[in-house]
Design goal:
- With about 300 residues, the protein is of the alpha+beta class.
- It contains seven helices and 18 strands.
- Strand 9 and strand 10 form a beta hairpin.
Amino acid sequence: MNFLKIKAITRELGLKKVILDCDTSELCSIGAGGRSAALITIDNIGKLLPTIEALEKSDIKYIILGGGTNIVFGSGLAEYVLIKLGRSFKDIKINTEKKIEAGAGAGTANLVMKAARNGFDLTFLAGIPGTIGGAVSGNSGTGEQWICSEIYIIKYIYKSGKKISMASCSGEKIKSGYRYLNIPGLIAIISVILEPGLNDRQILLSKISRDIDRRRSLQPIGLKTAGCFFKNPDNTDKSAGALIDGCGLKSFSYGGARVSPIHANFIENFNNASSEDIVVLSRIIKSKVKERYGIGLEYEVKLIG
C-alpha cells in the first residue's frame, strides 16, 4: 500500500485521527484479524463524504466500520482503509413527534435504554451489541420484529456509477428482510429516524432487564465472539444453532477457535485464534450440517479480507 497517498488524502482533508498499519484484531469483538493500511476516525458528515470521494478517486479500497461485533477480518486487508464513525454520528435525539433519531455510530444498547426511558419500545434489540448503523444494515432483531420495520426516515451515502451522493428515503420504501437491507449502491448509513411503539417506561425497562438476563444465560456473553455466525435457514423449522448442535459440534475446536459449548451458533476465540482458524472452523461446520441435513448454512457475520 502507498502510505504516502493515504497521508496526502488525510492531510488535504484535515483528518487528524489516523492510524497507519492498523491491527484489525483490536477493532472487532472476536479479537482476530490481520493488519489494514489505515484506520481513519471521522467525526462529522462534512468530512465523511469527501473522504469517501477521495479514496474512490485514488482507487483505494475502504470499509465503513460499525462496532465490529459481526465481522471477521482476514489477513488480506493490507490494501484497505477502515473508516470508523466518530463523535457526531453517536448522537441520539428525541423529537416532539413521537420519534427518535440516532446516528449510525450510536451504540445499540444506548439507544434501547434511552428509548425506554422516554417510553419508546425498542426492547426487541435488548442485548444486541454494536452500533445502529450495523444493526440497520443487517436488519437486527428477533424472529418476530426487526429494526428496519421501525424506520421512518433513513439517511445514507450511496454510489451510482462513479458519483457518490447522500440521500434519504422513508422506511416504507426500503427493501428489507431477515438479516438484510437492500439499498442500491449503499456505502454507509448516516442516521435513522425511528417511529417505534410506545409503552410505560417501567414496563419497558423491566422487559429489557429480563431479556438481557435471558441472553446471558443462553449465549456466551463476555467472550470473544462475532455473535450468531450463521443465519437461521428458511427451509426448516430448526435454527442454525440446533442444526450445528445436532451434528455434535458443541465444543468442537480448530486451532484457537471452537464452537461455543453454550450456544452452537457462536464461534469463540478461546485460545488466541487466528482469523484463518475461525474461517476454517466455520467451513467445517457448514460441511457437517450439509452432510447430515442437506442444508447449506449462510453466514450472518461478514467475512472481510
